[in-house]
Amino acid sequence: MTNQKKLSTRTLAIGAVLTAIVIVLQYLGSFIHLGPFSVSLVLLPIVIGAALCGPAISTWLGLVFGIVVLISGDAAAFLAVNVPGTIITVLLKGALAGLVAGVIYKLLEKFNKYVAVVVAAIACPVVNTGIFLIACRVFFFETIKEWAAGGNVVTFMFVGLVGLNFLVELAINVVLSPTVVKIINIIKKGK
Predict the structure, then answer these.
(1) pTM greater than 0.85 (yes/no)
(2) 24 to 40, 44, 107, 109, 139: CA distances (angstroms)
(3) From start to end of the chain, where are the E strands?
């Protein structure tokens, strides 16, 4: 019982630190723009949370990410179009990105922890961006048609709204998530 309680306390402590990192990175990330949207550096601690703490913490971290996006004004363009749709989109995409990363890591870690982190690091931005694109179709399509200014709307959504941003998020996650988790594991072994 003591080991379980110690593990729970440790997991909660790591989750609290990662929550603070999510908040700071989202606010700092709102200053780094590719096109009209900021780069989501916060996906990195979400994936790290999935690897170190499991799906519950990574889902929480994704939800915190969504809350901070709403509070920071990063979703202002969409809030002006559809408030409920924006709130649903932002909270759902963050929470599901965290959940999927956590579940994938949990399923694959017994085979290979490095592969588990890499696959979770790929899944997190894919889910985040995928939910965003689905929501664009469901909640914001008429406005996005106007933003596309007569061009192909689907091309605008994939290239103009998410293209470069998604590739940067994916690259950051695939390179840094496994690296950070490996460093943390090396430090843990050294103790």
Answers:
(1) yes
(2) 11, 12, 30, 28, 29
(3) 33-34, 37-38
